[in-house]
Amino acid sequence: MTEGEQASNTAKSEELLSLEEAVRFLGVSRPTIYRMLSAGDLKGLRVGRQWRFSKDDLMTHMARTEATLGPRAQADAEAESGFFAQEAANLGLAMEEVDADAASPDAAAVVRLCSAMVRLALAMRASDLHLEPRRSGGEECALVRYRIDGELHVARRMPRRLLEPVVDRLKSMAGLDVGERRLPQSGRIPIDFGGAEYELRAATLPVFGGEAMTLRVLVRDVQVPDLGRLNLSDGLRARLDALLHCPNGILLVSGPTGSGKTTTLYAALQSISGDGVKTMTVEDPVELVLPNATQVAVNPRGGITIASALRAVMQHDPDVIMLADVTDQETAQAAVQIAMNGHLVLCQLHADSAAGAIDRFVSLCSDPYYPAGALIGALNQRLVRRVCGQCGAEAEATQPAAVRLVEVAGTADDLAAGWRRGFGCPACRATGYRGRAALYELITVDRELAAAIRSQASAEELAAAARAQGQENLAIDGVRKAAAGLTTPEEVLRVLGIAV
Q1: Regarding the domain delimited by 71-219, which CATH topology (the fold level of the hierarchy) does it fall under?
Q2: DSSP alpha helices (H): ranges in 101-224?
Q3: Between residues 102 and 201, which one has the greater pLDDT?
Q4: pLDDT higher for 161 or 100?
Q5: What does the alpha-carbon distance between residue 367 and residue 346 come to, in Å, rounded to a whole number?
Q6: Burial of 43 by CB count in 10 Å (0-12 exposed, 13-18 middle, 19+ buried)?
Q7: Angstrom distance (rounded) from CA 409 to CA 181
Q8: Which of 293, 333, 342, 406 suits 390 as a labelling partner, its CA being 20 to 30 A distant?
Q9: Rounded to the nearest 10 degrees, what angle do helices 55-62 and 19-26 cross at?
Q10: What is the dihedral of CA 353, 474, 399, 421, to 10 degrees?
Q11: Could you tell me the residue ranges of all domains in the chain?
Q12: What is the pLDDT of residues 473-488, one digit of tens each?
């Protein structure tokens, strides 16, 4: 290299970039750069009221590596990896050899530990994996928990020194900024396991004591659920089919977070979609690819909100539209207008009852008159744990929980039914439950209920009016499914928030 070329390269490395150029160079936001400057994580030069940055300093920051381990922490990582591998072996799962592709043994130990943790979560059918800093017995630890069948279970309390390296490794896998520890981040980790493709939705959060991380597990190649396999009673299935074949109107599908609303909506769309029906969805994010639907993913950063996507979708001549979530007035009123223009709209929202879903949707609109004319029904659901198929056995018909459940439901069902309960086995981790099923309630909006909505009736008044017409609630469906041995009365009461 000539002296001239060396001088040119030196000049380029010493070139000062503006704040906007540094933002583009690092691929981060302006607030993130300001936070890095205030924390001393990034070097900058103040010129008047402007910041300038050298390329060398920016490249040094980008070259920052994940947290490394000392000898003691490396031994801890190997021990914890062995623990998770043994737990997987107890389930009949052999841990695969991991190609760490690491420059140091401690990095390889972290790679093996992360792989073992994730694979055990998948083997145990966990829907979420939680990593959080905690104090246990006066000592700090890294708490690892799995959510299985809707319940959180503590998998391990690891040494606190392992939390940062493990989180850094998972952040790297998700394409996140390893050096950013002061702002929440989110990303995705694709993974293959047992012949299936999974996607882990990674989210980090700065918390007291460190950084917490949650991985939500999604199966990418799962088949679209069939409406006939969702444990709908015959009567409710017939009423729901009638609503799904209405030429226009709004059907609300509600429930708390994690109650299976998206699964029900996908199954409903699949039952009515086909070559002769144009189905479109607006989702955040798209969780499952529907073969007979055109799906739009919301991207607020890119300017695609639910409301704006909905307006764009209307230019593509749809017959059926699904909205992943309705949380604001603009979206609710747009859904009403679309339904009144002759389209069927399936809306997902959070509510604790079918009547509560109607009340909340109407409250989002400026005038109850129009939503009352557009609404055709509201479905609400909950997920209950199933009795384990291996250790389940008959239970006493007069058990207090069964008596209490029948009392709450107000039914005349005979207690001498097929009540069952699980007594605990390795397959269900001694819980007595394995898998989940749904409880449903469906309110069909007729002229009488539409009039009540226009008069701004409360959720309690709407529920009473629906019950007077013979429409069943969640408790009644819970009695039916507990009496059939699908779940237990204790589980139904727990999910409904009712004391025995």
Answers
A1: Beta-Lactamase (3.30.450)
A2: 105-123, 163-173
A3: 201
A4: 161
A5: 20
A6: middle
A7: 50
A8: 406
A9: 30
A10: -110
A11: 3-62, 71-219, 227-496
A12: 999 999 999 988 999 9
Closest CA to 156 of 87, 225, 59: 87
Q: Tokens 């993974």, residue?
A: 191
| DSSP string of 245-286, one letter each residue | T-SSEEEEEE-STTSSHHHHHHHHHHHH-BTTB-EEEEESS-
Instruction: Report the half-sphere exposure of 173 (CA within 13 A, side-chain side).
Output: 23
> Using CA atoms, how far apart are residues 377 and 433, in angstroms rounded to an integer?
32
The predicted pLDDT at position 63 comes to 53
Q: Is the pLDDT of residue 3 over 60?
A: no
Report the alpha-carbon distance of residue 359 to residue 464 in Å, rounded. 13
The pTM for the full model equals: 0.79
Q: Helix 474-483 to helix 489-496 angle, to the nearest 10 degrees?
A: 160
Give how far the C-alpha of residue 372 lies from the chain's centroid of Cα atoms, to the nearest Å: 31
Count the Cβ atoms, other than its own, within 10 Å of residue 302. 8
End-to-end alpha-carbon separation of the chain, Å? 83
Place of tokens 């952040």: 171
Give me the chain's average pLDDT, please. Answer: 85
47 has which bridge partners?
50
Which CATH fold topology does 227-496 show? Answer: Rossmann fold (3.40.50)
Q: Residues 314-324: what's their mean pLDDT?
A: 92
Question: 10 Å Cβ neighbour count for 128?
Answer: 17
> Model confidence over 388-421: pLDDT tens digits?
999 988 887 667 888 888 888 887 555 566 788 8
Reduced 3-state DSSP string for 283-304: ECCCCCCCCCEEEEECEHHHCE
DSSP 8-state assignment for residue 470: T
Could you count the other beta carbons within 10 Å of the beta carbon of residue 468?
9
Please tell me the total number of residues recorded for the chain in this structure: 500
CATH number of 3-62: 1.10.1660
Euclidean distance between CA atoms 415 and 315, whole angstroms:
55
